[in-house]
């Protein structure tokens, strides 16, 4: 692994821990609202970083790639987060 990859992993871990602190300090708002803002900010950060690194942005042409992207957006992001929120507010998990 390169030093840049290790640095990115380290910064990701630091940002995850800071998000937990920020989440607890912000007044009570619904987690889905907070996640929407966070995902938007991260999308902008990824775009800016990719431009700074000189990556080309190309339009996807194969339908299998589009289907994989749609699957990841729906099930890997939205569905997984909503499921985590449901578990967070589930009475059995609140009792533990």
* Uncertain residue ranges: none
Shape: globular
Percent of residues in helices comes to: over 70%
Q: What is the percentage of strand-forming residues? A: under 5%
- Counting DSSP H or I runs of 4 or more residues, the number of helices is 4
How far apart the termini lie comes to: 39 Å
**In total, how many domains does the architecture comprise?**
2
Number of strands: 0
Class from secondary-structure proportions: mainly alpha
The biggest sheet, with number of strands, parallel, antiparallel or mixed sense and barrel status, is: none
Can you walk me through this structure?
There is one protein chain. By secondary structure, the chain is an all-alpha fold. It has two domains: 57 residues, no CATH class; 38 residues. It contains four helices and no strands. The protein is globular, with a radius of gyration of 17 Å. The mean pLDDT is 79.
């Amino acid at each position: 692994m390169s030093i840049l990859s290790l640095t990115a992993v380290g910064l990701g871990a630091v940002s995850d821990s800071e998000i937990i602190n920020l989440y607890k300090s912000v007044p009570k708002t619904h987690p889905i609202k907070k996640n929407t803002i966070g995902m938007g900010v991260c999308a902008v950060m990824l775009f800016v970083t990719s431009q700074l690194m000189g990556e080309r942005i190309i339009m996807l042409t194969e339908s299998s790639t589009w289907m994989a992207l749609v699957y990841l957006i729906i099930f890997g992001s939205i569905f997984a987060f909503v499921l985590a929120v449901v578990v967070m507010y589930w009475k059995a998990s609140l009792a533990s």
